[in-house]
C-alpha cells in the first residue's frame, strides 16, 4: 500500500466517524464472536476492536469478517509486524497497537490495512509525526493524564487526533468526546464479562445503544 499522511488520516478518520465508542473486545470462546459482534452492531457500535490477547482471537476475526459484514473490523494489541500481517489476513480493515516500535512503523508502510499507533507522551507524538502519522491511540488514557494531557497536546500538535483508551467508562467518556482533537474513544464497559459468559446479547446491545448517546451534542 502506498500510504501517505493524507491517506492514513482519511482511512482512520472514516473509522472514527462511524461511532463515538470503539468496543475493545477480548474473545475467549470462538462461539461468542459472531453473536457478540451482531449485538454491538445492532446497538449502534459497528467499529469493533478484537484484541489479539487470546488463542481464539484470529479465528474470531475471520468469523466476524465472514458473517457480520456490517461490522468495521479491527485488530487490537498488535505488537509485531507478524501480528499486523495476521490481522490483515483475518479480514480486518484496521489495526491498533498499545504503543509503537520502529519495526511496526516500517511494517505499516507496506500493510494493506490502516494502522493506529499508540502514544502517551509528547515525544511519542513527535516520533509518530516524523513517520507520517497524525492519528493516534492515546493509551493508557487515564493514567497518562486524561483530558488534561490531550488538551495540552492540542497546542503543539494541532494536526493530531486521538482515540483515548484505557480506564474510560460511561462517566468519563463524554469529557473526552467533547475535545476537538478526539475522534472516538475506546472502552470495554459495554462488555460485562458476566453478560458475555451467559450469552446475554440483549444486555450488551442495550449497553452499546447507551454508549452511542455519550457524544455531546
Structural features:
217 residues, alpha/beta, TIM Barrel, 6-stranded parallel β-sheet, 3-stranded parallel β-sheet, 9 strands, globular
Give a nutshell description of this structure:
By secondary structure, the protein is of the alpha/beta class. The protein is built from ten helices and nine strands. It has one domain: Alpha-Beta Barrel (TIM Barrel).
N- to C-terminal distance: 37 Å
What's the gyration radius in Å? 16 Å
What's the average pLDDT?
97
Q: Determine the CATH topology.
A: TIM Barrel
Q: Beta-sheet strand percentage?
A: 15-25%
What's the topology here?
Layout: H1 5-16, E1 21-25, H2 33-42, E2 47-51, H3 57-67, E3 72-76, H4 81-89, E4 94-96, H5 102-110, E5 114-116, E6 118-119, H6 122-130, E7 135-138, H7 146-154, E8 161-164, H8 173-177, E9 185-187, H9 193-198, H10 201-212
Parallel strand pairs: 1-2, 1-9, 2-3, 3-4, 4-5, 6-7, 7-8
Helix pairs in contact: 2-10
Description:
The protein has 217 residues and is of the alpha/beta class. It has a single domain (5-212), classed as Aldolase class I (TIM Barrel), CATH 3.20.20. Helix content is 42%, strand content 16%. The chain contains ten helices and nine strands. The strands form two sheets. A six-stranded parallel sheet has the order 5-4-3-2-1-9, with helices on both faces. A three-stranded parallel sheet has the order 6-7-8. α4 (81-89) links the parallel β3 and β4. α2 (33-42) packs parallel to α10. The longest helix has 12 residues, at 5-16. The relative contact order is 0.17. The model has no long low-confidence stretch (mean pLDDT 97).
